[in-house]
Amino acid sequence: MEKDNRASSNLREIWNCLYKNCLYHLKVSIPSKDEQIKQLQAELDERKKQLEIAFEILEKYTPTEKLQQANDEMILKVKGVREEMGRDLLTKP
Fold first, then answer.
1. Residue ranges of domains in the chain
2. Which of 12, 33, 39, 55 fits a 20 to 30 Å CA distance from 27?
3. Per-residue confidence of the chain (93 residues) as pLDDT tens digits?
4. Contact indicator for 50, 42 with CB cutoff of 8 Å
5. Where is coiled-coil annotated (predicted)?
6. Predicted confidence (pLDDT) per residue in 65-82, tens digit
């Protein structure tokens, strides 16, 4: 009987140690709501900065109307030259 009580006591002590250890690790690994909110806010701020940088780059390097018009004119000129070259190749022996 005494052996059973001692074994039961030892098991209870082991169980308590394991339980406390698990609780400690859970508390350490799961951040509080405030910490989670801070982490999410930091991630949101970082993404916001990245988007702002991306928009600045887009604004800086997006062609303006004049550049777009010049580009369109160049395309038309190239097409015209190609057509002329094609006609010349067909008509000249």
1. 63-93
2. 12
3. 566 667 677 777 877 777 777 666 666 666 778 888 888 899 899 988 888 888 887 777 766 777 777 778 888 887 777 777 666 666 655
4. no
5. 30-57
6. 777 777 788 888 877 777
Amino acid symbol at 15: W
Whats the size of the chain, residue-wise?
Answer: 93
Asked whether the beta carbons of 41 and 33 are under 8 A apart, the reply is no
Q: Sign of the C-alpha dihedral, residues 5, 7, 11, 13?
A: positive
Unique residue bearing structure tokens 């405030």: 34
Alpha carbons within 13 angstroms on the beta-carbon side of residue 82 total 6
